[in-house]
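User: Could you write out the 3D structure of this protein bound to protoporphyrin IX containing FE? I've included everything you need below.
Assistant: Certainly. Input first, then the structure.
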Amino acid sequence: MKAKISLLNFTRVFCSMRNAVQNAKPYSEVPTVSVPKFILRNLPGGKYYKKSLKEIQESFYNEFGNIFKLPAMFGKPEMIFIYKADDFETTSRAEGALPIRMSFDTLKYYRATKQSEVYAEYGSLATSDGEKWYKTRSQVNPIMLQPKVVQMYTKQIDEVSKEFVQIMRDIKDDKNEMPKDFKDYISRWSIESIATIAVEKRLNILSGKTDDERGKKFINVTLQFFEKLSDFEMKPSIWRYYETKAFKELMEVYDSMTSIIFSYVDEAIKRFENEETKGTNEIQEESVLRKLLKVNKNLAFVVASDLLVSDLTTSVVVFTLYLLAKNPEKQEKLRSELMSIMTNKNSPIKSENMKNLPYLRAVIKESLRIFPIGSGNTRNLSKDVVLAGYHVPKDTMVFMNAYIELSNPKYYPEPEKFIPERWLRDEKYENWRSKEINPFAFLPFGFGARSCIGKRFGELQIENIIMNIIRNFKLEWNYPDMKVRSLLANFPDSDLKFKITEV
Ligand code: HEM
């Protein structure tokens, strides 16, 4: 009987999906602009000229509504833009067993042509698809998503953050403000802490004043990496047909980063071998790098390179500090939570101290809502679906733009306000968050089998640095609102002159 009912249900769902596809408006009628019109709009005087990715996508929404088709051009496929959480859900659930996300084409090209041997068996998590992606991901999941493995790094991450706090004291000016280029300090903090995981090495680049030539070069190319890569991904370019000067420069950046990362992994291998012969290996639980090396040396190269180029924590930290600086009462509430757990502001933060911090987690979530790290996520459809009332066929790339829902007052009352309380499970605050919210409206780390592999490490890094800074300093922001630069990810675009006062 049970089997009969579920078969009946399945048939009903299947038929209703088929009917929905049949009753939908045809794909050819999805609102769009022609290629010449789109190019004209990007030229001086045009609607999209010098506009950020965020502004251009919002302009699609304002002009065309819930769905827009960007035609194929310059070697890039046609793409659909959608804006509603229900459509994000339909798209995400149609991702198939081997999900495909829009990739960084130039990095993909570099790895396929210049590093083909290393990438022959294990694909990159960030830039490959299909079976090769899966081969890597299935090895890495049980290592990187295991809380026990992540917790092992709390001590190293905490040491890096504590050194960073000291550097903040050293670099403050006579008004107790951080220097204009404070963002570069935070970027170096982010690279330094992820290197303790990816290549098990302290790079000692926090202050930016290292004597180590390799470390200096690594900072230099890493700071250029995202900007240069975004340029090629976002703007029309002929690199597929002709290698321009800018393209050659980009390849050099990839080359330097890759060879430095590989040299760090090689060094780690020698270090581990030495420890084994001398019997000095004190690590109780095997580290990420050791576990990867046990499987295959190239797997370790591939994953270390992915981890060192995929980290988005810098922007999250800057935006969170900014929101706390602008909202002193929320900052004070967070400080009380932290001080109630650890009364000594300089005590080491251990994993047991990080278990019960609901307000800290709510602060970070609210920061990711107000300042999402990217404009959205992408998925290739593994089957035909209906989006915003239109039939969209299998194998279409869909861009799920996050901004509209994240600032939708229906879901988040007074969306422009920084209200971490929205995320607390406390009836007192339930007016700040709608019960009808579709969870697909807020997916900062993506969805499903292809979601962020660094989520737990990223959270550990972000929570730890925020804890250390807020326990030590009162933060103020005495300047006009921070500007945001929207490349493939979002970055602060103002001088980060936070004022700090010792707590
Ligand atoms: C707060 C910080 C971070 C945010 C908001 C973030 C967000 C994301 C998002 C949205 C994706 C795409 C997921 C999808 O397609 O469903 C992603 C993928 C990825 N992230 Fe993160 N990430 C963060 C930190 C990190 C860190 C610290 C690492 C490295 C340790 C990392 C490594 C990766 C990698 C390798 C992928 C590709 C995974 C795959 O396709 O299999 N991320 N991240």
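The pocket of protoporphyrin IX containing FE is lined by residues 101, 125-126, 137, 194, 306-307, 310-313, 316, 373, 377, 444-447, 450-454, 457-458, 462 (CB under 6 Å).
User: Perfect, thank you.
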